[in-house]
Amino acid sequence: MSALASTFSTLGDRLRGLMARRQRGTASVGTGGVDVPVRDWVSTSAGQPTRILGFDLTLVFVVLCLMSLGLLMVYSASIALPDSPRFAKYSPMHFFVRQSFFMVLGLLGGWLTVMVPVNVWERHAPKIFVVALVLLVIVLIPHVGKGVNGARRWLPLGVMNFQPSELAKLGIAMYAANYMVRKMEVKENFFQAVWPMACALAFVGVLLLAEPDMGAFMVIAAIAMGILFLGGVNGRMFFLSVAVLIGAFVLMITFSDFRRERIFAYLNPWDEKYAQGKAYQLTHSLIAFGRGEFFGQGLGSSLEKLHYLPEAHTDFLLAVIGEELGFIGVALVIFAFFWLSRRLFHIGRQAVALDRVFAGLYAQGIGIWMGGQAFINMGVNLGALPTKGLTLPLMSYGGSATVLNCVALAIVLRIDIENRQLMRGGRA
């Protein structure tokens, strides 16, 4: 018995030693006890890049579910639009076919994007931001940018209308992450760390407000300020910058008649003065949620989409979901976006822990983008926030948003793939 106990004790010691070396990325092979790297995910030849095997399947699944549900609800919300004189030339399947095309384009773009190493995006981040700024200028040129309902936000490309503000969201996430990496040594100095980014953000704001597109500017400002905060800028400087930004938004609302009227309509949407005017969308959105109750009226059974609720397939898609799928459907969508945002932040924290600061800040910036824009859109639909023209990410109808959402998330997926490779002892 003593011999058996001694044998088990020796085996235990050797196993503990093996596990310790494995955690360091090495293991003892053969009788000579030579330590070699452990790569249990794939064997590679010398000089060959590591093959991609591990990635977040749940993240991909949740994104695909949101996009699929969005496609279904866009079809449901837009099927009756040809009855209106404005859309008389369209078929009932028009928006469904177009959104299907945008989804295929987005998924193809995402697949190509995930093949590009993150360091390539880091190297070209300032250039991408500059391209976004140039396009924001071009869209304001008369007879070049396309105007709809008094707003000039699109560049006609034939197969689709491109919205530069969507590229600006991706560009600001990349640029702010790259900027914080370059300014890490002086992040406590206001004029060296915060002031240049504030000037860039102000320039973007001027261009977006000229369109006008205050909703996109709010999202871009949230992304930039969030990355600055996560990057570790001085707390007092950060809160001072936030106070200045909030003050700017208050002034914009105060000196703009139509924005001020929107605030008053939001505060009292059922007033006769606003119910048929500035609060028309909000009141019909609330009616849609009220009709949905707990389980909904059933898929395709919405009444508000029958020319009562404007922009039902874009800004107010959640209201149609609430009416047809009820509280259960809305709660599932909210939970999916909460999980998605949380997962993006988790991937970002993992990257920072692996000393990949650009990748980590970028992933968290995309988390702010998806979570923040979804929060604003849901708040507007539910009457918790003033009406703003912001779509629901991954779900609402729109080519630029769908494609660039897929590209942005594909880069985060690539970050997760490289994180996993590094944690297994390989190379990103």
From TrEMBL:
The keyword Transferase applies. The keyword Kinase does not apply. The chain crosses the membrane at residues 57-81, 101-121, 128-145, 165-181, 193-210, 216-233, 238-256, 316-340, 361-382, 394-415. It is an enzyme of class 2 (transferase). One of its GO terms (cellular component) is plasma membrane. InterPro entries: Cell_cycle_FtsW-rel_CS, FtsW, FtsW/RodA. Peptidoglycan polymerase that is essential for cell division. This is Probable peptidoglycan glycosyltransferase FtsW. It comes from Roseateles depolymerans.
